[in-house]
Amino acid sequence: MVRVTEFGDVVRFDVATDIAGRGRYWTTCYLVGSTLIDTGCAHAAPEFVRVLAGRPIDRILLTHCHEDHIGGTGAVRRDRGDIPVHAHPGCAEVLADPRRKQPLHPYRRVMWGWPLPAPAHPVVEGDVIDAPPFRFQALYMPGHSIDHLCFLEPDRRWLFSGDLYVGGKDRALRNDGHVWDIIASLRRAAGLSLATLFPGSARVPDDPHGALAGKIAYYEDLGGRVVDLRRKGRSIGAITRLVCGGPMPIEFVTLGHYSRRNLVRSFLEDPTRFPTPALP
Question: What predicted TM-score, i.e. pTM, was given to this entire model?
Fold first, then answer.
């Protein structure tokens, strides 16, 4: 399932697996001129390729290796004649052999499917991909994943943030996520001069700096509470219930791969990064 929205020179595609006529677990891709940023999931790739028909695509930029962001890459390249793909070296390694380098949990196979393999050019911090009349600077902003890149169009002050910034107040985290790195990366993004923030899911915020500041404040408050409760001797289970609320259905669907407990554990990995309240 694919939805299309236009923001001037930027075309937004919200892509999801169609389950019983409804889209589930949406991922957002963007077409800027002839540059496609992220490609959605494998299950939606045939429809995505059809929706892209007639639009020029000369290159693909990938924000990170998760299957809901790279899953359509192979299908788009087959349709467009092996156009170049640019990605973090870790993402390029996964994309070269997805089944071996990134085995999927059962829920991930059902929700998004296996990506097809594709070659990619490694991109690192500071690299600039020229795509006249646009250019995209790669910014390494890990946390959601170890290989996460954001792409900045510096002249227009657009930031394509992948899954670094998503809307809402997260109550859970993947077991390979690192919340302190997420906070550091959000702070870096907030320090940029931005006109528009284009997230990898959720709506485009009216005020990019306000949205980033709100997300940072939420995480910092949550982290302070977690660390303070741990210093007071509370168990991880008790902290999880106190700061993250009751169980979430997705925790059962993912068998704990995405959970409140993972978020709490991540906050406790390195509490020295956050100025927590003093003990009474």
Answer: 0.92
